[in-house]
Give the backbone structure.
Amino acid sequence: MGSLPVLDRNRRKQLKELQDLFGIRFKKIAYLEWALQHRSYVNESPDEELINNEQLEFLGDSILGHVIAEHLFKTFPTYLEGRLSLIKSSVVNQDALADLAKQYRLGDYLLLGKGEEKEGGRERASILSDALEAVIAAYYLDRGFKPASSFLITIFKDLIKEVDLSGAQLDNAKNRLQKITQGRLGVLPEYILVSEEGPQHRKEFRIKVLIQGEDYGRGLGKTKKKAEENAAESALKKLK
């Protein structure tokens, strides 16, 4: 890890607004600034000793998965593993994270390069979801696991409740396929990225789904989630 960024008075004021939106407070505000530094911004500032937020994304993803899994385990003690996994996958994914990021106006505070800004990066699901994971990790590094866990449960609890009560978000091809493979074979499907083509703002992903190492279907989509869903549809047709 390099040195933390230095903030001027105006930027500190902006990040206080973001903290107020999240209902949290950093001891070292520079951690939050680090979480908001997209690689496009860092790449366009070669004279400054800046670090992008990708390391934080990696850490935040692991923290998020652990906290949500533990929360679901404690909240729904009678649910079987399959249903817990389905709820978790419905709330911990790129689209759900991006929606939460938009709810808290995270995009307004991101530091993007001029090209990424021009191409609408502040609204891009991949950038927003990654930035939220980075914020999670930054808060964990600054305040510790318990405050970070409380923060996550606070911002995710309504979504978890909605998914559990409606069940609608659980009725998709990926989840139907998971139920079948778990029930018949005791295994989970594995989704593999085959290719990623096109410019940043118009990418197309190709995903294949493996069941016990065998290719059961492929799918295309403008997001990895959509490509995985289409691959799961193909697999379901093959299984039938």
